[in-house]
Write a sequence for this structure.
């Protein structure tokens, strides 16, 4: 049981960062100096400039590609296919290197991985549908 609620927006932002749908671009030295100066003079950072929570000397801006929802869906579908292909290739390499006795266990692993990614895709489609219904 959790002691405090999960910040769903923070999780979504992390997922977007992990999948490159949103990108944090570190500012060059010159822009960092301007950001530090603005922070010391005004107490706030310029628009679209954020500071790293772990390292206050690192400043970045958030870049969001201008993609349509259809392009995002296509990108995520291809990303899932690439991940599935990687799993399949790893499993096939393991099958080639193992003896017959362990092949059954490896095939079960492949099946379980496929179940996992099918469930992940279905969940993604449900969430997408929920957002589109709004």
């Amino acid at each position: 049981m959790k002691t405090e609620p999960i910040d769903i927006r923070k999780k979504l932002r992390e997922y977007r960062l992990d999948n490159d749908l949103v990108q944090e671009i570190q500012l060059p030295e010159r822009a960092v100096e301007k950001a530090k100066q603005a922070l010391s003079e005004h107490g706030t950072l310029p628009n679209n400039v954020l500071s790293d929570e772990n390292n206050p000397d690192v400043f970045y801006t958030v870049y969001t590609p201008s993609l349509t929802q259809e392009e995002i869906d296509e990108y995520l579908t291809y990303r899932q296919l690439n991940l599935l292909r990687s799993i399949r290739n790893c499993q096939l390499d393991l099958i080639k290197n193992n003896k017959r006795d362990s092949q059954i266990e490896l095939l079960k692993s492949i099946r379980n991985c496929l179940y996992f990614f099918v469930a992940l895709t279905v969940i993604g489609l449900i969430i997408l549908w929920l957002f589109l219904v709004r």
